Amino acid sequence: MTAAETEPGIVDAHHHVWDLSVRDQDWISGAELAPLRRDFTLADLAPEARAAGVTATVLVQTITVPDETPEFLALAADSDLVAGVVGWTDLTAPDVAETLAELRAGPGGEHLVGIRHQVQGEPDPRWLVRPEVLRGLSAVAEAGLVYDLVVKPHQLAAAVEAAERLPGLTFVLDHLGKPPIASGELDPWAQQIRRLAALRNTVCKLSGMVTEADWGSWTVAALAPYADTVLDAFGPERLMFGSDWPVCRLAATYAEVIATERELTAGLGPAERHDVFTGTAARTYDLSVPARPAPPQETPCA
Question: Does any domain span residue 183?
Answer without folding.
Answer: yes
